[in-house]
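Now read this:
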Amino acid sequence: MKLIILCGLLGLALASLPSYGRRDINEVEFRAEREFRYQFDGQLSTALPISESQKAITRIQSLVTVQPESSEYWFRMQLRNLRWATSQEQFDSLRVQPFEEMEQVELDKEQQRLLTLPIRFNYKHGLVGDIEFDGEDQVWSRNIKKSIINMLQLNYIKKGVESREMTEEETTYKNDYFTTVERTLEGECEVVYTRIEESKEFEQWTKSVNFEKCTVRPEVRYGRRFVEKCEECQKTVSDEKLSSTVMTFNVTRGQSENKFLIRDVELRSQHLFAPVSEKNQLLVSYVYNKLNLIYAGEVEKTIEKINGEEKETLIYNSEMEIAEEKFAMTGDEKYLRHIPMWSNKVEIIKNIFNKMMKDIESGVELETTHL
């Protein structure tokens, strides 16, 4: 679940203007033989749910190139110019932090190579179908790319919709409201859409995931891990009731029927982890992601074809988390091959201990336990 959020993550808006610069955009719909470039910015902040709690913040930024193929309903996508940063300071978790105020992380060449491997995905009327990955791509890299594709999924033609009668007020303001079931990064769940027609050319859509109505969730669930009597256990709180994800799309209506172009997307997500009860919350995570269209026009460089493609759905791949748990339970090293190896793990552990010693010397009471 941690990396779901990081992925489901991992994207978001800078507090400043897009660093790549924005050109005038005349395109009004996704179409073949054209190129669409987005700036992807993301921030994940995680902390204990107490005031003045120190937060672990991760920031990512990338240029995302999307190219519709001449074959109907297939798109190619590739990430470029990746930047990564982290912080342990007491920042406002609901506000995106500039890269300049954080510690930038250098990705090694292999990580850069995997993240820039192209992918191909089926995209019909805004709904994402199969996703084809390069055979060399790894699970963690695939999940990051899925988190970006997830922000492009918009049920533009209201497929599988449960419609209802609109109120007079909604009709007056040209609103549209409907529910349906979709495969999202966070599972196969009911989603609620609201569409507002701002003008003949522009629309604003809002999409909310209802975690109480999911048939599939890509998460590792645990049973009891205590031996003392727990009076709260009969009032167990479901993770779904403590999660929320809302996305806002600004869309240009195309000239052709059922055609459109996503100009920008904003995603806000909050997850409270309380395996026993709301009174015993262990961790809270906030995600703020944004895609901002900065170029639409002629193809400057064609994205290469996928080599030895492997197909997956949009749902987050929890293979790594499952492998970690099975290795912890059995000690069988065969599960380690599913877990990415840290080339600098000694340095990471050393830095953690140095930070702990510094906090102890400063008189800081460390919040350990459950994590």
